[in-house]
## 1
Amino acid sequence: MNKFPREKDISGCSIFGLINTDGEKVSGSVITEAISVLHDRANGLGGGFSGYGIYPDYPDDYAFHLFFDSVKAKEETEELINKHFLIEYDEKIRTDNSINLPNKPLLWRYFVKNRNILSKDSEREETFKAVMDINNNIEGAYVISSGKNMGVFKGVGYPEDISKFYRLEDYSGYIWTAHGRFPTNTPGWWGGAHPFGLLDWTIVHNGEISSYDTNRRYLEMYGYKCNLVTDTEVITYLFDFLVRKNNLTLPLASKILASPMWVDIDRMEEKKRELLKALRMTYAGALLTGPFSVILGFENGIMGLGDRLKLRPLLVGKNENTVYMSSEECAVRKICPDLDSVYRPKGGEPAIALLDGKYV
Amino acid sequence: MKRRIICNEDFCIGCRLCEVHCNVKHSKSRDIILAYKYEKEKEPSRMTFEQKEQVCGSIVCMNCKDPLCIKACSMGAIKIEDGTVIIDTDRCVGCWMCVMVCPFGAIKRGDKKAFKCDHCHDEEVPICVLNCPNKALMYEAD
Amino acid sequence: MSSVIPEFIVDKNEDRCIKCKVCVRQCSEEVFKYFEEFDLIRIYNDKCVGCHRCEMMCPTDALTITKNNALYKENFHWSSYTINSIKKQAETGGMILTGSGNDKAYVSYWDRMLLDASQVTNPPIDPLREPMELRTYLGKKPDRITLKEENGEVSLETKLSPQIKLETPIMFSAMSYGSISLNACESLASAASKLGTFYNTGEGGLHKKLYKYGKNTIGQIASGRFGVDTDYLDTCAAIEIKIGQGAKPGIGGHLPGEKVTVEISETRMIPSGTDAISPAPHHDIYSIEDLKQLISLIKEATNYEKPVFVKIAAVHNSAAIASGIVRAGADVIVIDGFRGGTGAAPSVIRDNTGIPIEVALAVIDQRLRDESIRNEVSIVAAGGIRSSADAVKAMALGADAVYIATAALIAMGCTLCQKCYKGKCNWGLTTQDPVLTRRLNPELGSQRLTNLVNSWNLEIKEILGSMGINAIEALRGNRLRLRGVGLTELESKILGIEHAGM
Amino acid sequence: MKYVIIGNGAAAIGAIEGIRSNDKKSEIVLLSKENCISYSKPQLYKMLNEENVQNIYYRNEEFYTTNNVSTILGKTLISVDFNKKILLLEDDTIKYDKLLIATGAKANVPKLKGFDGETYSFTNIDEALKLKESLVNKDKIAVLGGGLIGVKLSEYLHKMGKEVILIVSSKGVLSSLGDEKISQILNNEIIEKGVNLLLSTKIVGAKKIDSKIELKLEKENIICEAIVSCKGVKPEVSPFEKTELSIDQGIKVDDHMKTNIDDVFAAGDVTEMYNSIEDGYCNIPILPNAYGGGYCAGINMSGGDAKIDSVYPMNSLQIFDVQMITMGLLSSAEKDEVITMFDSKKRIYRKLVIREGKLIGAALLGDIDRAGILNNIIKCNLDVSAIKEELLNSKINFYVLPRNMREVIVKSYIEGIK
């Protein structure tokens, strides 16, 4: 089976994310309950979750979640990992095999450390390269998450089945994101499900961006290979590119991905205008058009962002120390009927909730 | 409202279509082919096409502020109505005093009656201006 | 006696002709002559160039210009054009001259690419309801932006290279004062200024009357260096070094002395009545490092405040040349395809040299991306852009903006009779005869150009909307939204697009 | 404010329109010794023909009410007390604040030696009606004087079927124009059409013989049935003769149409105005001057400030089939350059008189189209040295003038600036 699709992936979806800003952990069953409300927005061809803070035993190791098609692929991958990293621990990802899902790959996780002591940036760059290397060059192996103290759990099936399969009730984390997928053209390949993960970035995404190829070709100039042909992939890479590689803040990255209109930029006071003008001109290849709402998970928070025309729904709700983001309010109400506040961010306005209690 | 048709000679291309359209507009049938090929009664054109070497242009009544033709008319047949100089053809006796004084030579001699550009007061824009292919004829109203 | 058969037949319908003689007065080729004695309009078919001026001016539609169907016996190998060319050459011993762009039946890749539209999974956007952004900045972009923080306020640290702002990604390509009339130049300048875009001086210098449009002027420096002085550099918003022209790659220009009027001589800064000759090469550019020096020189002379364009004809190894030009420091690279127009060129060059802009653009854009230098330069595609659809396809292939010139001339009246080199243009465009130049009222010309570009803008917005895109930069290089039809696998690969059905 | 206008001709009408352009309210009184509404003197000959009578009125009857003018018609002015600002009529007096004298001109009828019968004249309606009545059973009419009135009247009488003897003392008709060629062409035309034209003929006297008249000439005697004297007109100044009003050939006015007396203006055929070409004051009894002068006076009377254009003679007339327009000075002085063009086949004659490069007179005969362009060149005192040949030989063309000059002319007429 060809690992990567030739056609661009198109899907409709439901998304959900939550964060306990005090760092208190909740079980994976909570988010499973929420996303299962949105059953009808998926079609059983994809579901997935990401959890942060789930590996307290290996907090400083990169946790690689991998899909293997074959033992050979696993061996090749381990060889490659060993070249760059020290494997602290690895195991088969625990699953409930009574759940009937198609085309299950071999699921494995590794907790790894860099062989050399490096700065944080270099260390991440090395990891990034290794992930790209595995994904592009090893037949039948695919890294689905590669951050620290986090992991992505996804597959072909309804989200609630995926959750049961991965026994998410056994994990607890302070950040969870979830995705129910309605693809129209992907063969049942597990890698195509959301969240998409790179380093500690995970993206769940609803919508379809019309600027895909512009974004892809832009990213490819800077070493990213967009093999999956999914929007989620390029959006994740764009965040990685802008925030990690270009040192921009998340709010500024949001202003690039979902830029304000030129007429609005023209009206801004000079310094801000010049800044946004320069950002938009310089990173023109990163502008996302078309409908989308995404929930970005990262090491210390989540961010919700909708397209600049607000063509897809995004809701942010707060209850005490928990912030919820979702494409539908009912999913939030299911697990938290009484919210302190609810709002729907404007198109292009990021909603950011951080672990230290900051809630933007 | 004072109407004025002014020719910008920088852009007059000498096609003389203004005359053609003026003639058609003031013909009986108002149809170009009938007017030219079949109608018997024909007035000379109300437009005057001027040419000197490479420069050309069309001239019509300028609707002077203080029209000499009104002063000269021996029958009091010329007056200003709605800012437009008009000739009352019922009163006109063809004495050509107006022809004698019009500084632009814009008054023509018809069959015992003087006549001139009426600025197409029944049209939104004078027909010559409307049909000038190079917008050399400009229409002003104040 | 000429042995060349007339190309056109001028047919006058006597039932409709009112003998207004507008045809007699309008035809600069003197096809019509009026004999007062006989009240007869006599027609000379052999002089007709097929410009259709008479047909359009005739108030009774009495005239029809038709192709002479009684040409030589049909022959697929020896076309009438070929036979006539041979006869002309046998008569004159000279090169066959022509004007406008290559008219031969080479493949047009624009016509083999189709656009995508949104259905179900991704909503189209209604441009009447939602903002639709066409603004484009041309110039070198940095690889990354660095910021500084003062008193908790983040601001820009990177100093951007000079940029020019276009409210529409359509500009008017180089046509010199000399090759076209001053009224035509003014029409372009004024339209560019109304549209918030740019026109290009060609290498005709800048007439004093047009200085007021300086903010919308791209000043060209070509091998003749005509009209280049401090005022010129100061006034133009950007400077373009012209290396080559799509219609005649590798060929210089020649404005005959009789066309060098006093005003043209003043504008070009050459003696009046002398031939204005643009050499085939710049005599100070014999290789890429020389180009780099000229670019640096211009930047230095303009205080690093103006983007420098470099224009090349699309030829076989354009991609490598383009990469060199970027590395030589150009801010904008202009690629002129083989369909681009000219005022005068040997027809053998025009018809047989260069490559299609679609191909050149596709490979240049990809090459610059492969070398990770695409952000360092803007790409302008030129040469045969006929419609908003062509423009959109060019941008999807990777262009930042397009240049149009033939389309602009057509908007101003041109009917592509291809006799520009004769200097008798009946539409007052490619002539300096004062009787003819006044046929183009710049107010009207400017209005028509503005209308043309505005209607293309509307169409581009409509196309973007149908694709679910609402900013032009999200179209740029978005080749996924193109599909080929009737392309071979190799052609698809070169263009970087999938075939329809994939 | 009370305006009083004496007279009811073109000058009076001009004055009314001039006053009303500034002052819509104040009282205007118009006094005229003729008991009819204003009529056009050049059209007077139409009185002779019943069908055309309506075609001579200069304004319609509503004109006076529309402009709120009270008229006193058919009353003769005796004299004026300019100090008290009072007009003295036979049986009444009228006070005025501003006065316009527009009494026009009257016929100059020289006494014929030995003749005690009626000598008709033809300068106003009364005279015209009188002539008309007398013509009923008369067929042979002698017209004395080859000036404009005489020639025109002869033509009209001829067209009525009368036998006309036109007796002219000079060598040709319209000799006062000072152009022999014109006189010659017209002489031929008049003779050709059947008028008995006697040139260089002086009248010695006349004698009434029964119902006929014997007219004694130097060389012969001729018999006719009526005599119409058309020996020119003179300003009607009789009521002012004994006042301090300055009168020479006519009442002297400045370029604002003011007389030497405060608040008294004069206009029309009664005046003597500055002739820019002749550089002197003279009486130019033509309609454009009358209306224009009256209009100018009206504006100045009502508080405006208007200056009269330079005046000089001009006329447009048709004698039988000859159409002509003359303007300015045609009798040239030695220093003047005279150029002429004559096409005998088309009967087109054109003459230009140029003084120091400027056009000062022009005559157009046969082809009069666009004569106003030449008139304007005279009026604006434009130099024609470079274009005189073109003006003489081609169709008159506004574009003969240089562009800057044309632009100034267009602008000045559009904006009304002189």
## 2
Amino acid sequence: MTGVRGARGVLLTFAVLALAGCADKQNTLAPASKQEGRISTLFWIMMAGAWIGFAIIVGLLVLGWVNRRREGLPGGGGERAATRIVIVMGVFVPIVLLSTLFVYSNIFVVKSTAAPPPGTTVRTLGVVGHQWFWEVRYPGTEAVTANEIHIPVNTRVNVVATTDDVIHSFWVPQLNRKIDMIPGRENRVLLAADRTGVFRGECAEFCGLQHAHMSMQVVAEPVAKFKRWLANMARPAPAPTSSDERRGREVFLSKACSGCHTVRGTDAAGKIGPDLTHVASRSTLAALTIPNTRDYLFRWIHDPQQFKEGVKMPSLHLTDSEVNALVAYLRSLK
Amino acid sequence: MAVDVRAPEHPRVQRLEQVWEERPGILGWLTTVDHKRIGLLYFFTTLAFFGAGGIEALLIRTQLAQPESKVLAPDTFNELFTTHGVTMIFLFVIPMTTGAFGNYLVPLMIGSRDMAFPRMNALSYWLFLGSGIFIYIGLFMGFGPNAGWFDYVPLALRHFNPGPNVDFYALGLILNGVSSTLAAINFIVTIFKLRAPGMSLNRMPLFCFAMLAVSLALIFALPALTIDLVFLELSRKVGFQFFIPGNGGDPLLWQHLFWLFAHPEVYIIVLPAFGIATSIIPTFAKRRMIAFPLVALAELLVAFIGFGVWAHHMFATGLPTITLVFFAAATLMVVIPSTIQVYAWTMTVSAGRPEFRAPLLFIGGFIVFFVMGGLSGIMFAAIPFDQATTDTYFVVAHFHFIIFGAAVFPILGGMYYWFPKVTGRLYHEGLAQLSFWLAFVGTALTFFPMHIVGLIGMPRRVYTYPHGLGWDSYNLIETIGSYILAAGLLLVAFNLIYSRFSGAPAGPDPFHGGTLEWTIPSPPPHYNFAVIPTVSSAYPNWDEPDRAVDAGKLERGELTYEAGHETPTSTVRDGVFDEVVDMPSESPWPVTLAFFAALALVMVLISHYAIAGIFLLLVLFSLAGWHWKEPQEA
Amino acid sequence: MSVIRSMHAPPGRADRHRIARPNGWWGVVVFIATEATLFGTIFGSYFYLRFRTAAWPPKGIPDPAVTVPAILTAVLVATSLVVQLAFWAGRAGRVRAAQWLLVLALIVQGAYFGIQMHLFLDDLDKFSPSGSAYASIYFTMLGAHHAHVVFGMFLELFLVLRLVAGLTNYRLIGLQATTFYWHFVNVLALCVLATQIYAAL
Amino acid sequence: MSVARQSKGVEFLQWFGLLGAAIVWTAQLIVGFGVTVADCSVAGAGWNIDVDTWQIVLMAIGVPLAVVSEVAALLIFSETRGLHHNDPPPWGRRHFFAAAAVWGNLLFIAIILLSGIGAIYNTPCQGS
């Protein structure tokens, strides 16, 4: 491992500087789990090999240029010698190296990073892909949320990835490989963060107009904190306290909102948009398209299309006061 | 030597001129069956599509130059990247390498006077043209294909994609597939049967081995795509259930069939490039290829093993590992034919006295980029790593190094290399080398950073990306690179156009190439060879005694066949002289048939099935008319 | 070397006798190869879909008929012999015989096609191709094969008409190619039948 | 044994040496892949297919056959040692293909082994 790190420093100055220099939010090579750690090690090993192979070929070409005035190989020798090199370097060496790679990656690494069979982990959670947001369910509880996945740190969580419409791909680069969400199939991927933090993920399979705005974040937190969060998520929405909030709820239930959104504890049980029971507890709106602030929420409700052209949520042409009331209500859904 | 063969004033040569001459003017081009003219038609058409695809690429890069930019609306972006892929693969690289290079060169390299089925050759071109126009009409009507070039269902089904966009894609590609199939059949039979006497399989130029491999791959790969597209259209138009899980269908069926075609496709794209490289390297290294038999087999092996790797495009679909390992194993081993070739090329360069003129420079660039793309390709055979990086810009970088670096660079090199043969004039060397360096730097700048930006998490096919993920600077570099690259390509175009009119006369053999096309005048006469050459090695132009003997035959009228519109055939394995066959002359039917076929698909597109049926009858009718006139009546 | 050249130099252009298969033969063989792959893909899809469905055919869809298709296929396969005879007759220069044998084949195949069409439409009334993946692949497979039968009949019809004007080298090769094509279509017929009735076994 | 018969035998050896291993691998891929798909799908689950046995059998048949075709290539190669690959056919052509197939067949042997081993050592029907 350390040897590899050393080698990488030598071989990869360009890439390494680049990788070190950048934000790590979605970096496959900044692992936050054993699984992703193994995968990035696999990468660095292949990368080292690749640069060596590349150097050999470029070197040969340069030699050919240096030697352009003389017949025969630089080190002397003609057809036979050259053919021997082709056979050794072109057939034998690669067969050995590639077979080794096969065994290492496709038998060992693949096993040690694979999704566990159902029911073998402490926790299972369901993520359902929608055009274009992520519905997150915690089996065994009422909790339903969207685009923000909380998991306990140092715990193996089995994610069951399914889709409600087209093919999406669930991918949290710092935690594990990606897994496609395919109609009619139940795929799994293992999340097991070995440190607390927020890890960004994004839909990796082209899923239509707003494929670019289908991100999510995984929050890995201490078990106690996670349990508190989950308990709150499982509760129905808090009742409105101020008059504004009450009016907001009226608007929410009377206008089209409730046709698409669910707020548990009210009559709103729409299934098309994200569950808003605890929307105020989330840090972003529209699958990480905009931050979840009073101002943005206001503009979003006014005209969602300006942020996410083609999103299913229409502009309901509400008056400013109605929107203000809605904002007040939604911001109260902690 | 060969010069005598071309004595134009000789009565036999004049007779050949009369026999093989075709009608001049636009009508001549519409009815031509001359493989050289058809090759040129392919060449200019594919260049036009290359331009279109390039503009699409520049628009895409411009949109992605900065985060959150609004140059293109999302739907436009999706149509552009889909059409870019479809254009570059189906309307540029494949028709350019097989249609243009293959058509023009294969008969010249094997010493024949035309392809085995000249009229079918014309038909392939007209069908190809039809498919291209078909797809682009869609784009200009605002219905460009918009579900990605691999068009995954259910996104491509009517429920999620109600417009005709995907229908333009599917029907256009069916037509394109028919065209490629016919072309492939033609190449296989031509290479099997029309080789000059003495050209046994072991004396066949490597370019022809590449074209043979490509054609065989097409023959067995295209049906999968055709069936897949038929399934798709039946699902979209009349609600068949192949892909609907609820009713026993499976979206992955589409992916299996698509990649069963589309991975061999990748090798179909690069194989002719190998062929071009193996033509250019010996000429400028002034020696025969090292490990010739191994390289020949390697070309066939790539095409063959390419059929056993398709599911490595589906590693992230959750298929059982025990299914995936088969494809991972093949994916690793398919690398080896390429390593063989890469070492054979570099060894030939080292062992010879290479003269680094523009064509060889482009091949040098090709080797560098091909190795780079190949090495990142190996990584995708490691299932866990593939699942980490698939559908990211790391993949985009990989396949652009292969498709642009490894397929288009040899095409550019080949354009320079055979330009004197086709036009009779020399290109401008200085400009050519400048264009190489521009293209080389441009390619590296455009595609290398994509590796990094992919590794740090940028998925492919996003029309925009947020600031603050560390992607901005790389994307900007890529965009700058793409413009440099475009400049390089424009310089190539300028050089060729300029040299076409004011280049120095080239003579029959400016580079002293090894294969038969260099034994005849530039541009080649309609009949290609006054005396059908008799061959005793894979580099006949370097066997001067043989050529001298050929020259003598003109007087004696041996192997000249000036009596009729004829060319000799030989046995498949050992190139033993077999019989003389009458070659058909120009015919109006291929273009007519293609026209009706295209109209039939238009009718399917707008769901007028009865009228489509009528056009299909007209297709059969044209087929009958076509065969009513038989070659010997020419 | 010299050996080879003497071997290749033909005695003038008159030499027409052939020591290997003609281009047309190779052309149709390669064409058949790609067609076979096409049907291979269909059969592959059929069984892929079958693996993914517990009940085959699914509930509510009748088992495919066995006897009638089997008999029909047997009849169709028999025409292979007739077409082959036509080719032999043609090669022996007996043009009229070739013509009449082709006509005979055409009549039998026409009858076959007629009955198959009837069964096809009959099935369409029983269950819709847009009802299940089974129905979709079932009708697609049969439709594809029927289309090939029609194309084969078109080729024969064309030859019958051409042979009126006598026999040429070109037409003889055409006849040989068509014969080949029919053998292929009939092999397909057997594979299609096997796949089709598999659901009833 | 007449010359014609003998040359037929040699001819067969050359083509078998060239294509044998390739065909064997194709068979292994189709059957091996098919078996895994069948076993891991809705209907197939009920047919309790023993994937490992299948894979072992496939390897046990495939590897020897591939080796035989390698031997065939070697035989032709040694038979034609000293010829140049551009020499007149048929022997020049036989040398040409044998010289290449000797190395090419190694790939197919490798693929057959790796696929089999991979399929056996990984857990049946575990999503990946």
